[in-house]
Amino acid sequence: MADMLIDALDRLEAGDWDRAHEIVQEFEGRGALWLHAHLHRVEGDEDNARYWYGKADMAPFEGDVTEERYALRQELTSGVAGEMGQPPQT
After folding, report:
1. Threshold 0.90, pTM exceeds
2. For the chain, what is the domain count?
3. Which of 19, 6, 2 has its CA nearest to residue 69?
C-alpha cells in the first residue's frame, strides 16, 4: 500500500492531481486519509480537506503544502506509523 501512496504523492508533485486522487481513493488507513486531505488542500477545497484530516484523526496541517508533503513522504517511507513522519515516542 505504501508504494502506491508514494506513487500518488509522486504524481501530485509531477502535476497529475487527478491520477493522485484516483490512487488515494483506493486505500484506507491513516496515510491514505492524510494524503487525501492534502490533495484537497492543494486543490483549494479546505472544507473537504478538513473532512479528510478528521477521518485521519488529525488536525489540519499547519505548515505550508511543501512542508506537509515532506512530512507525508517521511510518514509513508518510514515504515513506522508516527505523527508527522516521526516515530512514536516511547
Report:
1. no
2. 1
3. 6
